[in-house]
Amino acid sequence: MSIPIVDQDPVDPRYTRRGAIYVPAGQGPTIWAVDDTYTIKLTASQTNGSLGFIDASVPPGGGPFPHMHPNEDETFYLLAGELEFLNGDQTFTAVAGDLVHIPRGTRHRFRKRRQAHRADDLSVHPRRGRAGVPGPRSGGAGR
């Protein structure tokens, strides 16, 4: 896959317009839900509704109860460890380097099964106004 790069006229003000968002490692608002730690790197309001980006650390046994998002997809990329995912009525295990995409309206959850030192996953999904994070373990239908 390639992304076209358009030559720009250096006189055009868009050529020098700045718009990058930089979030250094270890930075971003952090939310704790049960034992999970979610650091918000980008919110949908920062990206004009295009995506939210969360760095999550999930301890053994951690992760939300099954839930669904009626209006947004959710994508996970595992950096380390392994997580068990629920996909409707099916479960599967994703490991470091795997990507999991959950379409809106799909019941899902993730759970850390192994006793590794840490499992990090990055969650990317469109969201109105904020990057969503899994809610408390209430068994609710969404966040």
TrEMBL record:
Q: Name one Pfam family in it.
A: Cupin_2
Cross-referenced InterPro entries = Cupin_2, QDO-like, RmlC-like_jellyroll, RmlC_Cupin_sf
The chain positions of domain Cupin type-2 read: 57-112
Q: Which domain of life is it from?
A: Bacteria
Q: Where is this region: Disordered?
A: 106-143
What spans are recorded as compositionally biased (Basic residues)?
Answer: 106-116
Q: What is this protein called?
A: Cupin type-2 domain-containing protein
Source organism: Phytohabitans aurantiacus
